[in-house]
Amino acid sequence: MIRFEHVTKVFGSGKRVLDDVSYEVERGEIFTIVGPSGTGKSVSLKHMIRLLSPTSGRVWVGDDCVSEAEGRELSRIRSRFGYLFQSAALLAWMDVYDNVALPLREKTRLTEGEIEFKVRDALEKVGLGGEGASMPSDLSGGMQKRAGLARAIVTEPEIVLYDEPTSGLDPVTSRRIDELIADLSSRLGITSVVVTHDLNSALSIGHRIAMLKGGHIVEISTPEEFRNSSNRDVREFLDAQFKTGV
Length: 246
Description:
The chain is α/β, with parallel strands linked by helices and 246 residues long. It contains nine helices and ten strands. The chain is globular.
């Protein structure tokens, strides 16, 4: 579904954030990416929708080479994605309904009646059916993340990218977000890529876990295999995460 082929990303400072990275995300799976800060997790997400381009290598979405696409072709590929930003990125001057409706108004020719149906359906799916008239400032952090997720799925994307979906949330709310991601993946058949520092989240919802360190993939495995890995980098990461209670 999404394929990285020998992707290297070097920024202007000379910092090599991704170094010959290759992996494939399968259709319909929840693929989680973990690793220490600054190892290229969010940079990987941005390559999937061409917010960043590789210094070398290629990124594919199905049969489309997104890393080489331009103009209308790039827009078409991007329309296959929804994106949940770390901060939820809701527009403070719009209510929840209008935030969720925004991509439909900008990218489609749907009537307001058709938009209303899709927005209300998306809000129901994330458990915010009665919050359309609320302003973002009236919502808790978890509710803001759910509103951002409603906006990400309202266009019925094939793929949803999650950048730190549980960041800044308490453990109970974090687990609710995890359950929502898993439920949407199962019910809607969405392919999900989740970048997270929350190892509990990665282990509970991921079908596979990829660990990045120093710009390299050091492990790709199922949660069970990841927990029992003999890879030194994985063991150190697991020990550090759970010893600090993260």
